[in-house]
Design a protein that fits this description.
It is built from 13 helices and 5 strands. The protein has helices spanning 9-30, 54-64, 86-97, 115-127, 134-153, 162-170, 174-186, 189-196, 202-208, 213-223, 231-351, 358-388, 394-424, and strands at residues 33-37, 41-42, 70-74, 80-84, 105-110. Strand 3 and strand 4 (80-84) form a beta hairpin. The protein is rod-shaped, with a radius of gyration of 68 Å. The N and C termini lie far apart (219 Å).
Amino acid sequence: MAKKFSITDNMLNNISKVTDKKDTLEAKEEFPIEYIELSKLMMNPKNFYELRNIDELAEDIELTGLNTNLLVRPVADGNYELIGGHRRFTALKKLVEKGLSKFNVVPCKIRELNDLDSEIVMITDNANARELTETEKLKQVERLKALYQEKKAKGEKIPGRIRNMIAENLNLSLTQVGRYEKISKDLIPELRKLLEDEKLSVASASEFAILNEESQNVILGIVNKNVEISKNESISLRKKLQEIEKEKEIEKEKLLKDIATKERELISEKDKLLEDRDKYKQRSEIAINDLSEIKKKQKEEQENIINEYEKRVTEKIETQNKEKYDKIMTDLQNAKLKERQLNELLKNAKNEANKTNYDSLKLNTEIITKIKDVSITMKEIENRAKSLSKNKDLTIMVELVSAYDEMLKQSKEFEKKLNSYLELK
């Protein structure tokens, strides 16, 4: 028969010791603690928390010792960067400077963390280990949100919504986180400055962040007059301003609708004007074409009238010239006949030259000269008459007629003198 197996108290104590030893070893491996000289520790440049009450903390450490390890991460050249414990580190340095060298080497918990995770741990450590100002709480929410968004952008998996992660890290409710996010996003810089200077509470700031910029400037004017506003007053004031904003929004919407209606009317009127312009332009082009045709026809009619007039004038001038030309030619023939007669008389006169006296001789000489002049004039008239048939110039015709009249005049005078001579004879 098999023996019954039982666990004695001694065995349980041994098992418990083994288990405790195992947990301790795992903890040491996961969170190794080393004693590090203060000279090898560096402040974290991303630490935005205020180092308050350092003298009181140094006095407490001197009396009771360092109750909490510093949290660090290794960096270059064997040094370490602080993640948690910036106030403690500053207090320890003050003690060493005071001559208490036993605080020169301090226990540090070492974490292997990248830049993003080390800042997240720094914020989480400070959020749960000290009393914070409203500005620090607001900064925590802003920085954690930015850090988690950066991790997500790099492809790192975030276990849950960012707001939930922030609430968990900072031990806040989702409503509180949402309030800080609203302040960070929508509160105007001037009111935020009042929040940082502790002249405005987070509760009031979160109420005012709901309002638009114009309403927040109204709040700013009230607070700048050193008027203290309680939470209930902030809510009441916010509601009143929201009502004003709503009324303005209604007026704005109405105005926008009126503007849109007017814009549509203007567009419609513009379209009509453009349509009318196109019609007028089309009509204008037709009118211009019609006017061009009218001018063209008028020009053609004018040219026809001028050509017809020129034709009639030319025909009239040609008829008149022909008549005068025929008359001149007839008179010229008669003049030539008289010239022959005169030449015949001159010939007879030469035969009788010896019988005449001095006066007769003088008359004969004059007759000869006159005959020559008449011959020359007749020759010129003949040449001009011939050119008249080729040239229709009215001026030449007038000159020819004038020359012909002058020749007739001289002929008649010569004829009178010739007759008088014959009578003397």
